[in-house]
Amino acid sequence: MIVSLIEKLRQRHTLNVDEYKALLLSQDAEALKYLQEQAQEVTIEVFGNQVFIRGLIEITNRCRNNCYYCGIRKGNQAVVRYELTQEEILACCRKGYALGFRTFVLQGGETPDVKDDRIVGIVSAIRREFPDCAITLSLGEKSRETYERLFQAGANRYLLRHETHNEEHYRRLHPSGMSLRKRLQCLEWLKEIGYQTGTGIMVGSPGQSIDHLMEDILFIEQFHPEMIGIGPFIPHHDTPFATCSPGSVEMTLKLLSIFRLMHPKVLLPSTTALSTLLPDGRERGILAGANVVMPNLSPREQRENYTLYDNKASLGAEAAEGLQLLEEKLAAIGYRISKERGDYGSG
Ligand code: 5AD
User: Fold this and answer.
1) Per residue in 236-270, pLDDT tens?
2) For residue 263, what is the domain's CATH number?
3) What DSSP assignment string belongs to 70-86?
4) Domains in the chain: how many in total?
5) Does 69 contact ligand 1 (Cβ within 6 A)?
6) Distance (Å) from CA 69 to ligand 1 centroid
7) Structural domain boundaries enclosing 326
8) pLDDT per position as a tens digit, 183-221
9) Contact 335 CB / ligand 1 (< 6 Å)
10) 4 in a structural domain
């Protein structure tokens, strides 16, 4: 029964609500193995055995928001705050370029609007020095005008997870002052402006139900993002969710496979959170249909200050300087690193 749903999803890229739900609830190990195999086959059809790499630069851990799950929330007084200078960011890009990275992801907490000019300047400088590279931003909610200016300055892609598509659940994860409506509005703007747009969720965030995941699947199906970020929730000790349990690795892998079958060409990272929970998490993600990894290119001495969750991996194969190790780990499962830019639709 489940097997026929998987086949249907592969052929038609969509299921009805009851069918998605049956798949999400299924514990049938054989069927889930089949799901992963199908997703892996589709990934290889589209991208071959190549995995795209993105150099992640965590430009600041200052944040105006107070999301209950996040270690760099404004209310966490224990964090030593930093903000990389333009020169420091360019130095990361140079290091990354020499290693073979052709996409730089600038990620950071949400800074006040007065800092927008500074970010536009940084994007322009990267664009000038690295005309052949893609620039991805992951800097949260901004005004439409700022998104436009960043795009004009040379940014190509934007990651903004919706976190959950259920209003009530959104409020459980975020203090008042943040709203799902605003988040979805930002995603619409990003798409309209022309960014390759990414959204996504944490799997197993506190209060998340199967019905919430269903809503996320239906939203993603309708929004059709170019990138989907899916990782397990992991508690951080200095947040209100300190004592909550981490999300399920199995459910994360299942969702990766479902999204691959729904949307064969989507850029789907095997996330750091997955590698943090499981020593071979990255490889498991790739075998479930992911085709992107995002090694950390941030300055070594700042990585420990960018802890969104406890024990966040940033060394070894999760580090840009560990590319050789990453290469070996991927080779062991039959994959290799692609040094192409890896835009959406180029696979
Ligand atoms: N566990 C897992 N992922 C987290 N993120 C933030 N905090 C956590 C956590 N505790 C994710 C959010 C955000 C992305 C940058 O990191 O989904 O969008």
Assistant:
1) 999 999 999 999 999 999 999 999 999 999 999 99
2) 3.20.20.70
3) -TT-TT-TTS---B--H
4) 1
5) yes
6) 7
7) 15-338
8) 999 999 999 999 999 999 999 999 999 999 999 999 999
9) no
10) no
